[in-house]
Amino acid sequence: MAYSKEDITIRMPDFDDIKSGDIAELKHVLTKEDVQAFAALTGDFNPLHVDEDFAKKTLFQKPVVHGMLSASFISTIIGTILPGGGALWMSQTLEFLRPAHIGDTIRVLANVKQKSLATRVLILNIVVSNQNGEELIKGESSVKVLEFKKKVDRMSLIKEKTVLITGASGGIGAAAAEKLAAEGHAVIVHYHSSPVNAEQVVDKIIQAGGRAIALKADIANAEDIKRLLTEANKEFGPVQAVVHCASPSNTPSTFDKLDWAAMQEQMDVNLKGAFNCAQAVLPGMVEAKSGDLIFIGTVYTDGVPPPQQSRYIVAKSALTSFARCLAVEYGPSDIRVNVVAPGMTETGMIADLPDKVKMLTKMQTPLRRLAQPEDIADTIVFLLSTSARHITGQTFRVCGGSVML
């Protein structure tokens, strides 16, 4: 994108496209008129610059162009080329190495030394040299690239998405699949070992007029996830959102009877599964400058954890931290990453818990009931809607008030 003013074309920067190592160049022939104009503007009529007879009496033998006149072209390269229009010059170091004279062709070279995504600041190495390649000035510029308000395309915000839901053959994943399909999204119902249940979810969605397919994959296997996404792309196009619900069964166990294999199982499905899915879909989301990742956590990572649940809670804690890290890194690409943290929910995962434990949890919950999968699914639907377009890096606790922070 460019901006034109008085026959000068000015580059309008896209901060995302600027990279460390980028180089820009500007050339200008210094004239007597330049010196006169600069002296008139600044009031610097030092005879060394504007009086040839005076200059002949010095070791230079001829007028020296104002050092700041040559340096002023640093502003030109920053404001019109790198980064370009809208750039704010924040600070500058300068070292004047040798003088310039009228008739010299100066070459201003800017090189991106450092780029900060968080502050939108560039550090530029600057070198000004003459036609002989001799360095006249060198220094370092700090430049902020301003962010312009973007016109929101309402139609793009409400377009239907292709959503991959891991662990969607039952429980929260199945409820999310049905509700998202009812909203018009195309749904990939992922399963690992329950093809019959997954097909039942798909049949229910299709009978209701929605779009869905069931695909099997081991989400702890990166290649298997890539294969799943290839199949999904053929059916519905690129995946624009991932809802990571998959989690292995979690039988309570005291630590003294716990082995690392049991810990690893939770880490493989909860954390590594999220890692593999994110790594597979994020390049496309970055290119599209749009995307959503939603991970299912648990409120039990807050406060005092329940006993005999260490492997589950450790994995979910890591998953929540992972989500925040991704939210920071990919926010500039308009990719949102959030966590939905249920309390105890009426799914197959708690089928083996004693009724006494369920009843006690219910009575300790302000709303006096356990969550239903649909309660969690409604929050997922919200996070994929336009109403949540400015929300990222957050944990939404859907627990009837059992945890309040």
Give structural notes:
The protein has 405 residues and is α/β, with parallel strands linked by helices. The protein has 2 domains: 2-145, Thiol Ester Dehydrase, Chain A, CATH 3.10.129; 154-398, NAD(P)-binding Rossmann-like Domain (Rossmann fold), CATH 3.40.50.720. It contains 12 helices and 14 strands. Strand 5 (105-116) and strand 6 form a beta hairpin. Helix 6 packs parallel to helix 7 (195-207), helix 6 (171-182) crosses helix 12 and helix 8 packs parallel to helix 9. It is elongated and about 105 Å long. Mean pLDDT is 91; it is low at 152-158.
Q: What does the average pLDDT come to?
A: 91
The count of DSSP E runs of length 2 or more, i.e. the number of strands, is 14
Specify the overall morphology: elongated
Number of helices: 12
Q: Which structural category do the helix and sheet elements fall into?
A: alpha/beta
Unreliable segments of 5+ consecutive residues: 152-158
What CATH calls the topology of the largest domain is: Rossmann fold
Strand content: 15-25%
CA-to-CA gap between the ends? 46 Å
The CATH architecture designation of the largest domain is 3-Layer(aba) Sandwich
CATH superfamily of the largest domain: NAD(P)-binding Rossmann-like Domain
Largest sheet: 7 strands, parallel
Helix content: 25-40%
Give the spatial strand order of the biggest sheet: 10-9-8-11-12-13-14
| CATH class category of the largest domain | Alpha Beta
